[in-house]
Amino acid sequence: MTYIWKEWKELSRGKGLWLALSMAMIISVFILWQSKSLPSDQGLEVYLLSLYEMNVFLIPLLSLFISSFAVIQEKEQKTLMIILTKKESYRSFFLKKTMGVQFITVLVFLCWYFALAIPMKFLFIFDVSSFGVYLLTFFTLLFIFNQIGLLLGSICENRMQLVGANIFTWFFFIFLLDLLFLYILPLVNEENITTFSVFYFLDPLHTLHFYLETALGLYPLDHLSRLMKKMVWLQPKYLLWITLMVWSVLSFELAVRLRRRGGIS
Amino acid sequence: MREKWHWMAGIIFFLLTIHPNTFFAENRSLQDLVDQTPAHGTLLLQNKTYSGNVTISKPIAIKGAGKTNIKGDGTGNVILIQKPAIGTRLENLRISHSSKSRNSVEEYSAIKVLSDRNVLKNLTISDSFHGIYFSSSNENDLSKVSITGMGGGEVAGQGNGIQLIRSQRNRLTDAIIRDSRDGIYFSYSNDNVVKKVDISHTRYGLHYMYSDHNHFFNNHFHQNVGGAAIMNSKGIELIGNEFSYQQGSRSFGLMLQASDENIVKDNHFYHNQRGLYIDLSQKNRIISNEFLQNRIGVELWASSSSQVFSLNSFFRNTLPVITIGGQAQNQWSENHKGNEWGETFALFDLNEDMIGDIPVKYKSSLAKLMEDQELVYLFLPSPSIHIYEKINQFLHRQETVFTDPYPLMSERGTRLPVVWFMLIPVMIILGIIFVKRRRRIR
Asked: What's the CA gap between B133 and B52, in Å, rounded?
């Protein structure tokens, strides 16, 4: 609880969190305004999908910066050194830091989305389960990229390094990875489709988009072609949990094992 | 005694003169009641469940009271209207539980119609293989019908909502069909009119084989694997329909396959994997349609040629048009009117005639990839698609998809949305508060 309170004070005093929130707010309102002109039936589902597709560009970048800077700040202000000299292991510190950052960011965005639900209720036929599915997808995205940000904050030595690492990671997930997949695609056939599928769904952006589309009922999983049946070898909800677990655990373990002290000898 | 007889004769005379052909249902089997109703008479059913199955062999009207159920025994058609029963009326009924056997010679349905000029109105159909099956049955009028199929499971195990086999000049209006194999299945059925029908959660909303000169007005096909699959047919009019949310990997709003000389006009294609898919088809006229937020607006295979595209609007589709298998001869304007391409192309209109000053030429490198690999469709939402296109543009690996010589100027998208004007004062106020707070801290 102390860590959560400390994290709240640090993040709320900085501008990063509020900047991220205000950008998410502007995008939500902008897309909501545009969605008014779309056909009314299933408007909520299409709005939520459009909102997610827009957030995919923004949230990874913002959460990478917020969470990674939360860690590097501890190094730069030497608070990490003070904490570690008090018989606290880095693993224990990092776990508490992770919980603090995740809790605060999730809470802030949750408050905004509950506020956003009010105009949604007036503009669309409001379906709680669709909204719940969106929240699950959004917060999984936020959680995974927060975790990757914490990893980057842990392994980078200074702010300049960290800025470069954050931008590269964002660019890698948003553009490079899919570009790589597109060039590999001609080599995919029925024999190696499962291997391709594993790598495809390990990309959180693919899994989350696929889960959201299927859970909102916008992408039916019946009547799939033979190739697609082999591609989707597990239900999207399980793919989501696996991706979440893999990225969270992997990022946490790598952060603890590969940590750099950032000027602390 | 004589007085009593006078009274009874009077009552009988009164009943016969007031409504000579109306019979009220009693506690007898439905088949008995139907058999006892004279030709052109009316059988009024009560608000209760009657056991089917029932065969109608003469023209009668069966009217329910609003909550009248007819439940089949699960061994055949629940209601069979035979050939001589021309002009039968079924109204205000709930019909359920036909046979779903796939081992029988016949495919069963809630209502099977073999005769002509029948009226089917205010019917709710469920728990049946096919909903309504018109077999060599002409000039029927169907309206206000709701059909719920079995949903889920394998395709072969489900029937169609409405099936027309060798049936001509029928009129289907105001129907809701969901969870069946295909919404409406046409085979060798010509000159029918389908109007204001809502079809969702089926394989193909409309499945269509060897049927010519049918008309589809203001129907809504949504959340199906395919909205409407028109195959091996010609002279069809599709006007004012909406095709939306068909989003599977093989999904489409409307497919024209081996179908020629059709008119596709004033339709809305919204949020489909492919809005319009054309294969092996010639001389179709695609006029004044709106393609909005589809992954692919129009997918055109090289086997199709001589289509006319004019006055269509393409907005916010990932790819507005893609041609697969090479170029074919299609016309992208008519009478000096091309299509509206939204924000996809920047246009100049110096002479202000609302037509772009230079032709629009669209090139893409994705066609070859799509031809070979179905999984490309999974990457259409990705921003990398645009980088992939740019790289291939740089490497000269793109092929021309279409050239619109008279592109229409777009009015949409050029205006700044009102929301931005609303956000500006909010941002100014927040800025002032922020600056004031900083000054106070100093």
From this structure: 17
B chain contacts of residue A179, beta-carbon cutoff 8 Å:
384, 387-388
Looking at the structure, do residues B271 and B178 belong to the same domain, yes or no? no
Instruction: Give the total number of structural domains in chain B.
Output: 2
Note the pLDDT of residue B417: 54
Which residues in chain A touch residue B249, judged by CB atoms under 8 angstroms apart?
224-225, 228
Report the number of distinct structural domains present in chain A: 1
Of B272, B259, B261, B337, the residue nearest B298 (C-alpha)? B272
pLDDT of residue B20: 46
Is residue B298 a contact partner of residue B321, using CB atoms and an 8 Å limit?
yes
At A92-116, the pLDDT tens digits run: 888 988 998 999 999 999 999 999 9
Report which of A38, A45, A31 is spatially closest to residue A217, judged by C-alpha positions: A45
Q: Return the DSSP state at B343.
A: G
Q: Which domain holds residue A156?
A: 2-257
B234 and B354 inside one domain = yes
Of B202, B228, B250, which residue sits at a domain end? B202
Under 8 Å between Cβ of B207 and B186: yes
> Which chain A residue is nearest to residue B292, measuring alpha carbons?
A38
Residue B165 and residue B239 in one domain = no
> Among residues B173, B202, B231, which one ends one of the domains?
B202
Residue-wise pLDDT tens digits, B316-364: 898 899 888 877 788 999 999 999 998 777 777 787 778 888 888 888 8
Residues 6+ apart with CB under 8 A from A25: A112
HSE, side-chain direction, 13 A CA sphere, residue A195: 8
Same domain, B236 and B92: no
Look up the ipTM and state it.
Answer: 0.83
In order of A15, A55, A65, B293, B420, the CA distances from A26 in angstroms are 16, 11, 19, 21, 9
Structure tokens, A9: 């004070």
CB contacts of B222 in chain A (<8 Å) are 41-42
DSSP code for A175: I
Percent of chain B scoring above 70 in pLDDT: 87
> Is A188 in contact with B244 (Cβ distance < 8 A)?
no
> Are B189 and B251 contained in the same domain?
no
Rounded CA gap, B216 and B241, in Å?
Answer: 7
Q: For residue A175, give the nearest of B152, B251, B387 by CB distance.
A: B387
B264 and B140 share a domain? Answer: no
